[in-house]
Here is the input.
Amino acid sequence: MLPEEVLRNAQAALWDLDGSGVGILEHSHRSKEFLRVLERTERLVREVGGIDDSYAVLFVTAGATHHFAMVPGSFLGAGDTADYCHTGVWSAKAIEEAKRCGAVHVACTGDPAFTATPSTFQWSAAPRYVHYTSNETIYGTEWQTPPPAPAPLVCDASSDIFSRPLVLANHALIYAGAQKNLGPSGISLVIAKRDFIERGRADLPPLAQYRTYAKEQSMHNTPNTFGVYIIGEVCAWILAQGGLPAMGERNARKAKLLYDFLDSSKVWRGHAEPASRSLMNVTFRGTKELEEALLARAEQRGLANLRGHRSVGGLRASIYNAFPEDGVHRLVQLLDDVERGRP
Amino acid sequence: MLPEEVLRNAQAALWDLDGSGVGILEHSHRSKEFLRVLERTERLVREVGGIDDSYAVLFVTAGATHHFAMVPGSFLGAGDTADYCHTGVWSAKAIEEAKRCGAVHVACTGDPAFTATPSTFQWSAAPRYVHYTSNETIYGTEWQTPPPAPAPLVCDASSDIFSRPLVLANHALIYAGAQKNLGPSGISLVIAKRDFIERGRADLPPLAQYRTYAKEQSMHNTPNTFGVYIIGEVCAWILAQGGLPAMGERNARKAKLLYDFLDSSKVWRGHAEPASRSLMNVTFRGTKELEEALLARAEQRGLANLRGHRSVGGLRASIYNAFPEDGVHRLVQLLDDVERGRP
Here is the structure.
């Protein structure tokens, strides 16, 4: 979901960007109008995240899956080891890609049920970096604080970026596909330490090196101009809500409504352990019959996409930044109605 | 530029896609609503291009620059040679990336002035493929027919795709960044022979292999859903105009207006030789003073982006599919007014 203000502004900008008489899709990426959009979006991303200039802010035309390969391609050389935190389906994909490039050590795991983020760690001797997935959409677990790693952290933050105050300390690189909390699909935001970027391989194609994006302000080739525009609008909306502290409070309040209900229910039960619960994806189960009854009634209550990921089943409420508190109330009401056999 | 109908439809779809009550940016890429969009866009691309099922139609979240590296990464192995046709700035970039992967033989060149597409060829003994750039935006030259190659053709058609009837014969793979004639930036269309795709390397990351896109209908990861939607709308618009034969006639008519004027002018002269003239990018020069006079007056006549690429200077009119005939008339009028010193 995207905020209504963002959608309304985007509708206007498709036809006429900032009074230029030409739409955002039609301006050349070298036009002064688009350069203003790019400059504004980067400035707003930095303001929202509290990101100083020791970090580059990059817009990469790709989803997070691309970074699963691009990170080890750049930073995991022959003789290096990278440590990976394994917390579910997404971390497994990142691990698989890293193994193509070099030595991967799984330092911690939520195996087999992935009900919690790991609390015990076996780091390798000298990891080049430590990769983790801050939020696992499928199991509904989220790191409450980053793993206590002995090396620079690389984070796939696709599903919880800008949902709470950003922790930059110890992070070398954060990447996030935009489509959960930031904007449209087909673009990703990367926040990376400039000195870390410079340590990446320099003999790869330009678009496979983060340094190209840093050096050329994401303009080595035509970026996803519409995506850059929308991310700027979303950041402006976040600031208008009070910034990340306010987003974090709002998201915690939304999630608490649902988790409190699940904890008190006699038939619904949450999947994730309390200390690892995601504020973005609340995973839960009932009986098969109750789950189907809920799904059958959800649409008429204006609730969609409640079926859990096909790999794990059950139910899942994805309550990203733009999901309204009112929607959570309606979901709790529906869960309660189904539990009590009320129409 | 995009057709006004496409922009109006896109504005509506941002808010509510096909009466679903949810916008195109907000639907999951696995939702039935988006799957319908994807299926429709592929069907319309096939209808517009006359593309049968021996070719896969792929949507890649990337621009053409990405394919400069992805094509040789997949198809130019150790011991292979690929032949490249060198016609300007874009082909040079493609050649540079291919050299990273294997042996590149430049089979023909428009060096040094790039006023024409080559007419003499020195093919290597057994090229794995032959790469050419169908239209060179910077010099304003366009292949009138594909190069007579002794191997499967790979074409960068970013700047003239769907501007005239598509020639598929002898082509193994055609790629096109969408932002000139097809839609927004941040997505590319690939039309590739299924058997050629299968001959690519299979040990690369999934997103670096065309076969992944072919096998998973461009859904290995979240595609640029908005881009897929817009490409479908643009294809529907092309069909409503009469399809590619009508687009080709219309584009030829538009370009002829401008070239006929340049040929008759005493002060303006076209860059490209008549037999290699682009229907998409008309490059020309006057004196420095006349060029500046024209640029200074263009905006008040509703004409923009007439400055030639910074690498070659001069002037350039980019008259892609959606550029209206009326705009060409206004440009000719302005050129004539400047030539004759009329206000």
Notes: Chain B has ten helices and twelve strands.
